[in-house]
């Protein structure tokens, strides 16, 4: 990583130029930029674990779990491409800050809803906020330096996994009440906004403007990865919509054991994301994307095949989380590797859009298969789709040269 000995005028300061000053500044930018990922993970598992109680409180049926999950995914899907486009065209700092404000409002509102419609709107709003900041932050982290893409986006995955891990443990003591944890989620979002405002430069990069059309997104790798991430979206939102319900109701585990098992999905990502991201930078992102997909497939097939064995459920959920924690972000970095530097945000947004279109189908597919039993629904919605996703990752081609244009 090169060092710039001469301070630049304030008008020329960019995220890239600050990151080049020293390793410490690079690490600081990565950490502050990744904090919204903690918010996403924290809110995700607050709701995932608390959802059976939230749905009961608003007088909804089990089917509402899938409907609300679909609403959240719809918000993320519609605004993912927006977030990526804004990264390429406008201030990434203010794009991310605006989206965190949206997220903060609706995560707090989740704790106050009193009807199925209100719950649907609240989770849709959270999805809109996440949909904008998710691709913008992954593009910000992945597009600083080619040689650190895997490690930089692993920071997003690590803090996301930390949020997933903490969520169930914070929610469980309050159940059947759940308002306070969502208020705490809003407070954490405000702290994130303040840090982002104080530390992250307004301008990300300065490059000579050049026109790269929408067709520039569709490199062979991007097309293949689109299928892989679409299928994973189905699997993940089947998991998020119904896994806690499966543990609590189908195999009748206690809420404490269920919280411990669900939290393993976050712990897996928290512990494994950086090592996996490091390997992606050293061994090639193609190989490690497929490795992450393999972990997901093992976890998905196993979680619905071992009955109520708590030790096996803990291990398999951890394995699933280890793959989930980094898979989407590494797929995004492969997309960034494969296209022109000027559309790094747009390709990231495209892949997140496709991922969340798949997510729209996860909850309804699981619900449609429930008459055949939870195990069958899980093996199809999570197991089959994750295996197909793995197969698609094996069809990608490695990219070993940098496409980043120095500003």
Please render the helix and strand layout as text:
Blueprint: H1 15-21, H2 23-57, H3 63-89, H4 92-110, H5 116-142, H6 149-171, H7 179-199, H8 220-250, H9 255-283, H10 285-303, H11 310-338, H12 344-369, H13 374-393
Helix pairs in contact: 1-2, 2-5, 2-6, 2-7, 2-8, 3-5, 3-8, 3-12, 4-5, 4-7, 5-6, 5-11, 5-12, 6-9, 6-11, 8-9, 8-11, 8-12, 8-13, 9-10, 9-11, 10-11, 10-13, 11-12, 12-13
Describe it for me?
This protein has 13 helices and no strands. The protein has 407 residues and is mainly α. The two termini are 15 Å apart.
Largest sheet: none
Q: Looking at CATH, which topology would you report? A: Growth Hormone, Chain: A
Count of individual helical segments: 13
CATH architectural type: Up-down Bundle
**Share of residues in helices:** over 70%
Shape: globular
How many domains make up the coordinates? 1
Q: What's the SSE pattern?
A: HHHHHHHHHHHHH
Give Rg in angstroms. 20 Å
Mean pLDDT: 84
The CATH homologous superfamily is named: MFS general substrate transporter like domains
């Amino acid at each position: 990583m090169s060092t710039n000995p001469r301070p630049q005028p304030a008008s020329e300061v960019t995220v890239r130029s600050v990151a080049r000053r020293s390793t410490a500044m690079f690490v600081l930018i990565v950490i502050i930029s990744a904090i919204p990922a903690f918010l996403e993970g924290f809110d995700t598992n607050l709701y995932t674990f608390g959802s059976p109680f939230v749905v009961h409180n608003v007088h909804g049926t089990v089917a509402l779990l899938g409907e609300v999950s679909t609403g959240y995914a719809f918000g993320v899907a519609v605004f993912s491409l927006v977030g990526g486009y804004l990264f390429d065209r406008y201030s990434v700092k203010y794009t991310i800050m605006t989206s965190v404000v949206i997220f903060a409002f609706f995560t707090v509102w989740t704790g106050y809803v009193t009807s199925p419609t209100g719950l649907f709107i609240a989770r849709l709003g959270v999805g809109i906020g996440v949909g904008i900041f998710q691709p913008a932050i992954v593009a910000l982290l992945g597009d600083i330096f080619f040689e650190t893409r895997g490690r930089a986006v692993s920071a997003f995955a690590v803090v996301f996994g930390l949020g997933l891990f903490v969520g169930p443990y914070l929610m469980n003591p309050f159940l059947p009440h759940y308002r306070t944890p969502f208020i705490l989620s809003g407070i954490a979002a405000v702290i994130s906004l303040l840090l982002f405002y104080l530390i992250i430069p307004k301008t990300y990069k300065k490059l000579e403007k050049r026109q790269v059309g929408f067709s520039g997104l569709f490199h062979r790798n991007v097309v293949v990865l689109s299928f892989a991430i679409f299928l994973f979206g189905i699997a993940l939102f089947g998991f998020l919509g119904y896994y806690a319900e499966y543990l609590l109701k189908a195999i009748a585990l206690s809420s404490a054991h269920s919280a411990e098992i669900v939290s393993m999905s976050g712990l897996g990502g928290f512990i494994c994301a950086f090592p996996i991201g490091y390997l992606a930078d050293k061994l090639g992102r193609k190989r490690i994307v497929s490795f992450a997909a393999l972990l997901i497939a093992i976890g998905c097939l196993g979680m619905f095949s071992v009955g109520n064995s708590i030790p096996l459920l803990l291990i398999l959920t951890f394995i699933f989380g280890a793959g989930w924690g980094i898979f989407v972000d590494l797929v995004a970095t492969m997309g960034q590797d494969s296209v022109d530097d000027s559309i790094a945000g747009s390709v990231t947004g495209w892949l997140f859009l496709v991922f969340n279109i798949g997510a729209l189908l996860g909850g309804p597919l699981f619900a449609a298969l429930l008459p055949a039993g939870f195990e069958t629904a899980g093996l199809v919605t999570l197991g089959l789709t994750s295996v197909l996703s793995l197969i698609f990752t094996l069809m990608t081609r490695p990219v070993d040269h940098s496409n980043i244009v120095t500003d």
